[in-house]
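Recall that a protein's primary structure is simply its ordered list of amino acids. Everything else, from secondary elements to tertiary packing, is in principle encoded there. The following example makes that idea concrete.
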Amino acid sequence: MNQKNCMVAQSGGPTVAINASLAGVIDGVSASSMYDTVYGSLNGITGILNDDLLNLTELMDGHPEYLSRLAQTPAMYLGSCRYKLPHYLDDDSPYVFIFKQFETYHIEAFFYIGGNDSMDTVLKLSEYGKRIGSSVRIIGIPKTIDNDLCETDHTPGFGSAAKYIASSLLEIAHDTFIYAVKSVTIVEIMGRDAGWLTAAAALARNGYNTAPHLIYLPEVAFDPEDFLLDVKRLLFERNNVIVAVSEGIRDASGNYISASEQSIDTFGHSQLSGAGKTLEFLVKEKLGVKVRSVEINVLQRCAAHLASQTDLDESFALGKKAVALSEEGVTASMVTIERTSNAPYTVDYSYAEIRQIANEAKSVPREWINSAGNDIEQPLLDYLAPLILGESQVSYHNGLPVYMDVSHLSKH
């Protein structure tokens, strides 16, 4: 009997929900009549190149509790990488080796879970596979807290990160409001080119809390003078002003606030830092009030104790959907979420061609940001609100969360 297997890998930045998609893939394969085994490539595409693979079917077989624990575990069980494949016309050697590995392990489908840069890998592998006439189905499974992948309503990982951001802003408000002195708190939130995550700070508002009082996203040019006027106006009305700002805010000329021109990653992206601190110094110098900046950097990426159950459920479903699509012969595509209703919140799962997704980015629509560029409009709140719903039931031991053992990653 000819064995038919598949392979899965994860890459890019970690999220709370990426392992839920991995669990969905494993569950989909276990129920499949087409596939015998699913292999996990350690550290993204580099695991195939280095022949670092785990037999996930063997590991999970007979241990149903593993899948549920895996789905609740943050970050990446298989590890990650930031490896950029060269174009095969420039250097096809890694492609030749990867597809040879597919033959060796009888791989019929390859699933890559990741964000924008990972979808670039899906696109390149798909194009090369078509060029050589390979029958291996290549399918991307989305994840990114940035929520900037095109052709899908939202991305797994974003809802949980948004829940963490909103919860943190509400707690910062409680911390700030106890002092009857004039103060400004600036909260810098991840988001290089899209402001989805910073916009989620608005979910902290409730019947007694109006913070954040100002929200600045990279989709609108940032003017320091307008910012100072906004803050000064609010200080006349209240003691405490809380500001949410994206790390990627930039001026009218397109220059990032405090972006280091010397720090560029392998995909050509500026490594940003310091927007919040820059604004802190500006307020201190120009307004002379108590001011502090808080940088919410990586904490929201793996905060499984504040995961959105909606996020985890959808991530798992996308993993299973990817397996089902591969069985139908779909390739060169990414699985997607299609929102069918806001209230009640419902979605369908589908797919889109990877060439429409890779190397593109979805920004917050300008009409979802107010005309002054310092807050968001109700349609964006309506879009965000369902994504943070539901609480994950994390298991605890000795007061700490119990996650999957990832000691295999420290050996590589």
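The chain has two domains: 5-157+304-360+391-411, 161-301. The domain at 5-157+304-360+391-411 is CATH 3.40.50.450 (Rossmann fold).
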